[in-house]
Specification:
It is built from 13 helices and 15 strands. The longest helix has 17 residues, at 82-98. Helix 3 (82-98) packs across helix 6 (151-160). It folds into 2 domains: 15-258, Peroxisomal Thiolase, Chain A, domain 1 (3-Layer(aba) Sandwich); 270-419, 3-Layer(aba) Sandwich (Peroxisomal Thiolase, Chain A, domain 1). It is an alpha/beta fold and 422 residues long. The strands form 3 sheets. Strands 1, 2, 5, 6, 7, 8, 9, 10, 11, 14 and 15 form an 11-stranded mixed sheet that branches. Strands 3-4 form a two-stranded antiparallel sheet. A two-stranded antiparallel ribbon has the order 12-13.
Length: 422
Amino acid sequence: MIIAKRNTGNGRRRVAVTGIGCITPVGSGADGLWAGLNRSESAVRRITRFDPAPFRSQMAAEVDGFDPADHMDGKRAKRLDRFGQFSVAAARMALDDAGLDSQRLRSDRVAVQMGSALGGVAYAEEQHGAYLSEGPGAVNPLLALAVFAGAASCNIAIEFGFTGPNSTNGMSCASGAIGIGHALRLIRDDEVDVALAGGAECPLSPLSFGAFALIRAMSKRNDDPGTASRPFDRDRDGFVMGEGAALLVLEEWGHAVRRNARIYAELSGFGTTVDGYHMTAPRPDGAQSARAIELALADAAALPDEVEYVNAHASSTRLNDPVETRALKSVLGERAYRVPVSGTKGYYGHPLGASGAVEAAISALAIERGWVPPTLNLYEPDPECDLDYVAGEGRQTGVGFVLSNSFGFGGINAALVFRSPA
């Protein structure tokens, strides 16, 4: 096990979470997301975006009511696909929530770090249909600029004039968390003072959706979509796809304090590993998942007994949930049974590369608001999943130290650590 050295006086720059912007099927903005979690209702339903009848899985968590005109001018909105619109809109929400005016920031000291598993592939699929039916003249001439994964971070930079380090990683379902971890390091290393970091995903199109259906990764509980995503449950049968975006505003601690910013939490640790084992199956013993957690704790100069809540990746797949449970037991030891763990994908499905960012936002809010959301649809726990998964109802409790896990195809593992700002 990697053991952290206690050293709070190591001179490293601390990082504050001062803004949250999100677009999710249960609500948008920090307050909208939180209200959705408190309703304890799933947003999963039969897909309306296209006819899912050809597929064994026919449900998803869709974002309703999103209007890009609420967040950007019409010309910008027309140049972006839904993936790009989500990215820019969530960034604006995050900046507004943090009380930051982009024009008053030193542009080269602001980073944008994003993650997305599929980028704009759904829009590319739509445009390919136009090409087949009407020829090349029907294709949007801006297609290439809209669909590459880097459009997420680049369009945010263009919208707000930020010129600091900019990237979008594509590390499957861990990419949003990895983007946040990269931003943490940039601020720590004094390359920037502020970062917008998170993930965006809009994968709900026949080809993208169907690709996951073909490999039988998704639930087929089509007769009862609201209970289809059931992390840690004995009868789970796969994940449920979702869409959304979430960005955090991260600031160097002194930068936030000097302007009297509201601080949700301190982001204090990040760890990432790869299983080196299989593209779709996690390493059965959870060794590399555990090592990512250990690295995050060590990066935070923290010990396992400080963890008070875990927001789990909890994909609701047969293989992932017990492996994550083993990883937590490996790191936390006997104390794992006393730490509340919740998987929140029962609410909003699995928005692939955005999931780690949404769950980072939930982790910061749990610290600020003293409540941890439940694991929805946990009726009969899998015997291999025997921790305290906060079944049934959320729990009002003071939480000062949160671990957030994100795992993805390719064997990618990432973990983030959040602390109370007190």
